[in-house]
Design brief:
The protein has 120 residues and is an alpha+beta fold. The protein has one helix at 2-32, and strands spanning 36-42, 45-47, 50-53, 59-65, 71-75, 80-84, 88-94, 100-106, 114-119. The longest helix is centred in the N-terminal third of the chain and has 31 residues, at 2-32.
Length: 120
Amino acid sequence: MKMNGNLTTGRSFFARALQVLLLTLLCSAAWAQIPVFEIEIREHLFFPAEFEIPANQKVKLIIYNRDATPEEFESYELNREKVIVGNSQGVVFIGPLKPGEYPFFGEFNLKTALGKIIVK
């Protein structure tokens, strides 16, 4: 009887492991479809300062801070803010957005760190 109980437990474990694997693959496929855009912060400026993303689609922004000091990516229109410490990177997801222009700025360098996302 013990052997049968172990066999059932083994099958149950295998079934759960298979479910986790399938869920992981489905999630990976969904994330793989999200477009990725990269911007840099150098000398308290955004590069590129202006770029286009597709309308009605979620996108991933990877922001590389090449400066030694922290900067905050912020946008009231996008309802996002993210502090990126010096010499590191941060990730911000935005969208889906309607066509238009969405300004962003660096909270710690308001006069120089300015940019705009154009959604088409």
